[in-house]
UniProtKB/TrEMBL annotation:
Protein name per UniProt: DNA-binding transcriptional LysR family regulator
A GO CC annotation given for this chain: protein-DNA complex
Cited Gene3D superfamilies: Periplasmic binding protein-like II, Winged helix-like DNA-binding domain superfamily/Winged helix DNA-binding domain
PANTHER family documented for this protein: LYSR SUBSTRATE-BINDING, TRANSCRIPTIONAL DUAL REGULATOR HCAR-RELATED
Region (Disordered) residue spans: 311-342
Family statement drawn from the similarity comment of this UniProt entry: Belongs to the LysR transcriptional regulatory family.
N-terminal signal peptide: none
Keyword DNA-binding recorded: yes
Molecular-function GO terms, alphabetical: DNA binding; DNA-binding transcription factor activity
Acidic residues compositional bias, start-end: 333-342
């Protein structure tokens, strides 16, 4: 048999036989090395020589040695076999990447935003990886990973409350920044600043505020204090739907993460605007150090990286977040009708 260029083509098994023959010095030893029989090896060589039209070995009685053609094959064999072995290992790695199980936990607003997209990408790229998922507050999610109850956790970190990566590392966990979640201002539609496409935070010094979850609340206080004023927090609730409903009722203003707004129906009477100075929280993937090389975990991390076309910006670690904070966005909903934030 010849290849399209007209050159004779030698099969892989013949290359292995020649390589073994050079290493061992006899067909019997070569057959033993290859896990075959001496007659089978001899017959295969004879068929290869007939097909190639050239002798690969010189037979003298019971002794054999490589011919000039055989020596050509023997010189090329190590590189060929190394390349094939490397390709086999890579294929095995890809196969194992597509199987296994991973347990993941995340905060509530990730459940209807990030998680479906991550798992959808995972299903597409690694269909053999089984996943389980549960919601947990950030501290509880981190504890579950630390105690081995979960393999991965998505945990948010707010400005003024940076992720303590060093403390996690001391307990065998790695915190990898993965998403940037912009903080947005929610105003009553009738607010004097609602017509602006970008609102100065300092212009809200005299407003009453509706504070969300404890970490959102801490962020509002920290951001306002940084500008020299104390926000007048009149209402507090962990329910994001309640926050935007209170804003729509004209009870105050609020700052919420984009993920929270995308998980909430924005009622008529409320509008969303970017605020300056801009701020954002960062979403980290917390994983045990000894699981970083785990194939299922690697599959999830690969799925996250593959989300570059999603509505959420990947963090600087994944090459998407620009310097200087998040860019302004279009309003998430019209000013006069309640719609699901998308």
């Amino acid at each position: 048999m010849t290849v399209p260029g007209g050159q004779p083509e030698i099969d892989l098994h013949s290359i292995r036989i020649i390589h073994a023959l050079e290493e061992t010095g006899s067909i019997t030893a070569a057959a033993r090395l290859l896990g075959s029989s001496q007659p089978a090896v001899s017959q295969h060589l004879q068929r290869a020589e007939a097909r190639l039209g050239i002798s690969l070995v010189i037979r003298t009685g019971r002794q054999v040695r490589l011919s000039e053609a055989g020596e050509v094959v023997a010189r090329a064999a190590p590189e060929i076999l190394r390349a094939l072995d490397a390709a086999g290992q890579e294929l095995a790695g890809l196969q194992s990447l597509r199987s296994g199980k991973v347990r993941m936990v995340a905060f509530a607003t990730a459940s209807s935003t990030l998680i479906p997209t991550i798992f959808g990408e995972l299903r597409r790229t690694a269909p053999g990886v089984a996943v389980s998922y549960a919601e947990a507050e950030p501290k509880e999610a981190t504890r579950q990973v630390l105690d081995g109850e979960a393999d991965l956790a998505l945990v948010p970190s707010y400005p003024g409350e940076p992720m303590d990566a060093a403390a996690l590392a001391g307990r065998g966990l790695i915190a990898l920044p993965r998403f940037v979640d912009e903080m947005l201002l929610v105003l009553p539609a009738g607010h004097p600043l609602a017509a602006q496409q970008l609102v100065e935070l300092s212009a809200l010094e005299d407003d009453e505020w509706i504070a969300g979850c404890p970490r959102c609340r801490h962020h509002v206080i920290h951001a306002c204090q940084h500008l020299g004023f104390e926000p007048n927090i009149a209402f507090e609730t962990d329910n994001f739907g309640a926050v935007v409903a209170m804003v729509a009722a004209g009870l105050g203003v609020a700052i919420l993460p984009r993920l929270a707004l995308e998980s909430t129906v924005l009622p008529a009477g409320a509008v969303v605007r970017p605020v300056t100075p801009p701020s954002s929280r960062e979403i980290y993937l917390v994983v045990p150090r000894d699981l970083l090389e785990s194939r299922p975990v690697a599959a999830v991390m690969s799925a996250i990286t593959g989300m570059s076309g999603s509505p959420w910006r990947l963090s600087a670690a994944d090459g998407e977040a620009p310097e200087g904070g998040p860019p302004p966005h279009e309003p998430l909903a019209s000013d006069d009708e309640g719609v699901a934030v998308t």
